[in-house]
Design a protein that fits this description.
With 69 residues, the protein is mainly alpha-helical. It is 48% helix and 6% strand. A two-stranded antiparallel sheet has the order 1-2.
C-alpha cells in the first residue's frame, strides 16, 4: 500500500493523469507477493515473501477469510 501511495504521489507530481495511474496500478503484479500457485491437487497454495513479523501477521490475516480453520 505504501509503495502504491508513493508511486501515485510521484506520478501526480510528474503530471500523469489519475486514470492512467489507476490503469497502471491495476496491472501491477509482484512475483512472490500473495501469489497463487497452480497445482494438480487443486489445493489453495499461496507464496508470500513476508519478511517481518508485521508482514507475516498481515498476510495471515488476509488469507484467514479463505479457510474455515
Amino acid at each position: 500500500m505504501y509503495n502504491s501511495l508513493a508511486a501515485i504521489s510521484v506520478a501526480l507530481e510528474l503530471g500523469i493523469d489519475p486514470e492512467t495511474i489507476k490503469t497502471a496500478l491495476a496491472e501491477v503484479r509482484v512475483p512472490g507477493r500473495s501469489e497463487l500457485v497452480d497445482n494438480k491437487k487443486e489445493l489453495n497454495i499461496m507464496i508470500d515473501y513476508a519478511h517481518s513479523p508485521e508482514s507475516l501477521e498481515n498476510i495471515l490475516s488476509a488469507v484467514k477469510e479463505y479457510t474455515p480453520r
